[in-house]
Description:
The protein is an alpha/beta fold.
Amino acid sequence: MNAEPLPGRIYHAVAGFEDHLIYELERPAAEITKINAYLYHEPGPPRDDIFWWQNRWPEPFQLEFSSINEAASALRAVQRNWAACLHTLFRRGELISSKLPHISSKPRPFPRLHNDVPMGAWTLLDEHSVIACADCSSPFPGGVIEFEEDKQGPPGRAYLKLREALTRMRVWPQPGSRCLDAGASPGSWTWALAGLGANVIAVDRAPLEDRIANLPGVEYIRHDAFTLKPEDIGPVDWLFCDVICYPPRLYEWIEKWLASGLCRNFVCTIKMQGTVGNGIDFDTPKLFAAIAGSEVVHLYHNKHELTWMLGNCI
């Protein structure tokens, strides 16, 4: 059974933000095909200005099969790791999945390096047709990663997107690393960084929770982070930012840090306001993505926001 390549790529849209992906794909006007509720096929050349996706299938293919066993055998012949992305024919899809190697969906501990192996995805078009990609852009099955949660320590769940970003980067602060946490209040990211043994300079106009501020290695500065110059802070190993602000203001601040040479590793949340066609900024993320060596993604734990990551400490 031969696989037939599909020119272009397939995007798995973020649930609730499908209109964001469609807007990006249609700008400039382009021919796209809706495969199902979340999958969109773009046949044109690769682009680096598409961010609102949960997973990207860069080299999709289609194959026809006559039986459950034949479909599973064909996928196994390509590679081992496959995550189903089903939006129809669920029972038939489950039967195919049962004949593929098991991929665990259990919450993961942190920190932990994920296996650097291809992760495939597939879906059913009809009872006898599969569309698949053997090596997707997300290293996690279907773009989904869950972590073992601590419901007592942090003051919120925002630390989960930080953990996801660092897991994707495959590197994180080490004991003694000097970290700047901008927009730290109430302290979820500071809590997570202190838990790694890092020394954290937490900056916000609002206070940290007392128990976070009193953690070993945490220094709190009551200030608007964006009015602090890099020279005011000095060299740091990592800069983290989860400030609620318009994207251009964040970009202007990051430009100063990049020019200063005082930090080489960054994880910043790009907050979005507005709706498609009414105020949302689709352009500033492209400026972040153009920074050499960096990446802009929508993390599984992001909401109406993107995350910019740049790591140079390996």
